[in-house]
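Entry:
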Amino acid sequence: MSNLERDPREAVCGGPADTASEPVNELLAGRDVVLGGTRGMKVTRTLPNRDVRMVGAWCFVDHYGPERATMRVPPHPHTGLQTVSWLLAGEVTHRDSVGSEQLVRPGQLNLMTAGRGISHSEHSPAAAELHGVQLWVALPAAHRETAPAFEHHPSLPVLVSPGVRVTVVMGELGGLTSPATTYTPLVGAEVLLDAGAATTLPLRPGFEYAALVLSGGVRVGGTDLGPGPLLYLGRGRSELSLLAGREGRLLLLGGEPFEEKIVMWWNFVGRDHEEIVRFRREWMEGSAFGTVSGTDDPPLPAPELPMTPLKARARRR
């Protein structure tokens, strides 16, 4: 799933100056976004947030479901990012302009690297339960013009302890490394805890981290957390304690603070207003993003740009 808002907000993020340099426990409320019109799927968007716009290179987090819904996202473009699709329930078929067609199921990773430009669509069976997260990772300048690519990883490394199962989706955690391609030091991991289970995750003090509970409830570093808000944890931690009062599932995100400022608008990640204008023009002209085969849906038109130029802002409010 991607950003289908008809009036997308501009977000300018990045740069380490305003990153919390010590541990914090800062609850960041998400905002409800309905994708695809009034009858579309509702998601809770916690990144970019008004107060914290990135966590490492993670720049976009949508949590949706569980609900009976149909995902039907027409062909649309991306630049300068990776999309990370992670399901807890249901299944979604991905098609893209480099010729990929892949069904993703719970516990499997679909990773699309947009690089200099790609288009894709996403469809699910009608009236099926869907629950998952869609995340974006910003590409650094050295790699944002890379060739577009797609990866599917049906199995991922897992850390297991009594009552706890940790899947390393992206990057490295606890000595295990995901096979997914990354371009900056980061981690994305799903942690499933039985009722009453506790664990301590090893962290890197130089990374900043955040946690998002996807179901149940988990005490994260002393803060009780349920589905909804993102818990920003800052930097300076070497470990993180987790305790589940009832069965809980959470997503841990982290990474080195992103050194560069980026501009996000609609489904594009660029560096300034002029780049976003060019990306939009190329998409509307039908150039630079290829063609998605296997779907009858017409390409999604880009929204109108705002009247004022897209400007850089600090990474934190």
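Residues 11 and 264 are 5 Å apart (CA to CA).
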